[in-house]
Amino acid sequence: MQELSIHPPDSAKFAESKRHAEKWSKVDLDVYAPYSVFAWEFLRRNRFYQALVDKRKDAPPLDDWGFKWHRNAEPTHGLVKAKPYWEAYDEGEPPRWRGLDDFLAQLPKDYEPTRREFKTTLQPGQIAIVLDIGGTFGGKSPWQTQLVALSERLSGFSTPFKYKVMHRTVLLRRWGLLKLVSDFGVPFDSAIRDPAYTSLHAPRQDKKERTPRKVKNEPTLSPFTGMYRKEVPPTTTKDDLAELRRLVYGHGYLKILSGEGLFYERNGRMATFNEIYEEKTRKR
To answer: Which of 58, 105, 106, 48 is nearest to 82 (CA)?
Structure first.
């Protein structure tokens, strides 16, 4: 029987050594963690990304595994600049995402009401728009109305940044499974029975009574932690494995970024609401 694995076979030679496993294990996420943090946790366990950061000579080119929304588009791993994979989200410089932070860097910081010429080269997927921010209407600018019209027009060209993402409880469970298999080398068949994974499984509730369904299997003892465990349904573990492959190697980490809803300019980057809230809380 072929061994079940999250990582593709051709990534075996890029398997990251266990020197960072202990440090990675200290990252503790919960259901309140921002989607952007989950996205980074999945990306940094991509062995091809690790080989790129390590500047391995045998690292596969980004063309082979990077995300390309169109055949003419430049492949990308999703970041403006590669962040060391051994760093947690809040260590060093936070991840700066393509389409968010690089856009912010291009926005003007001041305005000079003079006639100017502007030349640029548009990449696939880009368009150029001229906004009138002058006082056209009695000293006031119609730029907000222009942005509304622009939003409606662009909706006919491209899919807006909206995506029905999986609930954080599901992301948390799959992240727990990823840690066991990828960071600690626990065999998949054993990992799906370990409390580090099974304890994150929330059985469905009956809509009428709002009480958890009964678990048929009795708890058993885990050989890894000595803790009692409960079984996770086979269909759930199968779905988790398939989805983890997409999250780590199928660029699924980029899709879940839209779960943030809105990003805000903060300290030269696009920050999530949770990041801004935590920053304000620390300053109190």
So the answer is: 48
pTM: 0.78
Print burial letters for 27-64: b (CB count within 10 Å at least 16), e (below 16): bebeeebbbbbbbbbbbbbbbbbbbbbeeeeebbebee
DSSP summary character for residue 103: H
With CA atoms as reference, report the closest residue to 11 among 59, 66, 63, 67.
59
pLDDT in tens, the chain (284 residues): 334 688 888 888 887 655 565 667 678 888 888 889 999 999 999 999 999 999 999 999 999 999 987 777 888 999 999 999 999 998 888 899 988 888 888 788 887 778 888 888 888 888 888 888 877 777 788 888 888 898 888 888 877 666 567 788 889 999 989 988 888 888 888 888 888 888 776 544 444 444 444 444 444 444 444 444 456 777 788 888 899 999 999 999 988 888 877 777 877 788 777 777 777 676 66
Residues 6+ away with beta carbon under 8 Å from 51? 14, 58, 59, 60
DSSP string spanning 232-278? PPHHHHHHHHHHHHHHHHSSHHHHGGGGG--EEEETTEEEEHHHHHH
